[in-house]
Fold these 3 entries.
Entry 1:
Amino acid sequence: MDKIKATLTQLWNGGIPLVQTFWLYYFVGMLVMRIPANAIGAAGALLIIGWTGYMVLPIWRSADKYTGKPIFALLAKIAAVLIALGVLGSVL
């Protein structure tokens, strides 16, 4: 449990590289979560919305620390904004 908490803290602070934050924790995480989420109905939808909402700031913060090509940091931030708007649309 401590390892999960440490990973979530690292994610939240942007301490995990952008490629891992976006593709592994957000994208693959969403694909993996959709299977059980679909099976449990409304609670699963809340799980998906919660994880998606949580991942907006880690993506943004990781993009701030990204030292590669600036276009990738910009695209990640655009994706984070679109993700946030999608979450707001789901909630409203």
Note: The chain is about 85% helix and 0% strand.
Entry 2:
Amino acid sequence: MAVSLKDPQDGDLGEVADINVTPFIDVILVLLIIFMVAAPLSTVDVAVDLPVSNAQPQPRPETPVFLTVKGDLSLALGNDAVPREALQATLDQRTSNDREQRIFLRADGAVAYRELMEVMNLLRKAGYLKIALVGLEDTGQGAPAAGP
């Protein structure tokens, strides 16, 4: 509440309705400085020319071929263990020599990237160039769902 400094004998003791905006302006200026300093820190400085993907989701085959790299680096084709040396023969048998068929590659989270690349090189050497990496799909409802 503000009081007028007029002569009290005028009989008019009205209130002054002016708001002191100086503290408000000070707070706004401090916030502006904080955002000006913090904004450049939140950006990524690595220049990358990212490609644009317009790929449509592919229909899932009736009997997908899953190749799994387990945590101990052993391989499994479907539910059956397969040695690395016999991978090409087993894949040819499973796919009826159809090397255009997509192979869904799954790996344990503990498998190193180098080991995963070695398995991909084995697939490439066997003639299977269509490889889909299988990961977990975030459904936004707690537990993630598995999906290719």
Note: The first strand starts at residue 2 and ends at 3.
Entry 3:
Amino acid sequence: MCSIDALGIPFMLNKDITINSECFYSNEKINIEIRNNKIVRVTPKKTAV
């Protein structure tokens, strides 16, 4: 559940954050940028929770 925590904490604390991780199954890099309580960038675009 660490990825869910990483997505929720910036909204709870009203902080900007960039999450850099990788997919457990494919080892593909995943990057999510949250600014002003909005997800502003997700790569790859097919990323899903």
Note: The chain has one domain: 2-43.
